Amino acid sequence: MIRKGGVAGPSRPTSGRERRQGLRRVTKDVDGMPIYKKGDNLRLFLREFEDYAFRREWDTPTMLLKVIGVGECQLKIEEITTDCLGWMTFKTEMWAEYRDLRRDEIEDDIIFNETNVEDFEDNIALCAKKKRWKEEEKLEQVEKRR
Hints:
Shape: elongated
Strand order of the largest sheet: 1-2
Helix content: 40-55%
Distance between the termini: 44 Å
Radius of gyration: 18 Å
Largest sheet: 2 strands, antiparallel
């Protein structure tokens, strides 16, 4: 049986955007072990699976044996775990396969709400550096996100 939700405890504070969009949800089995289903938040799945494995004191080979998915994700996970030797390799392969490259997570998070001045400035600067914006482009983006 698969269910949604039921977070054991966040490893970082949940942002307002994540709460609004329900990004704190990961598919879990009956025992509460995170399982990956296409459409779930990959970053959160990996974090929660690592936390779950840590609480059970699993080593890397055990983690690679126990990580599971649903449907086509299960087939891909089996393929990745067959070829990799370490957890970092697994995570890299999962990111390559399932990350939505059309979505810029840094840029999506840049919204100024008058309480997050420092975060807003940091995120704009990081995004501007990443996208190599000129000063005019940076100012346009600031105005869009007010």
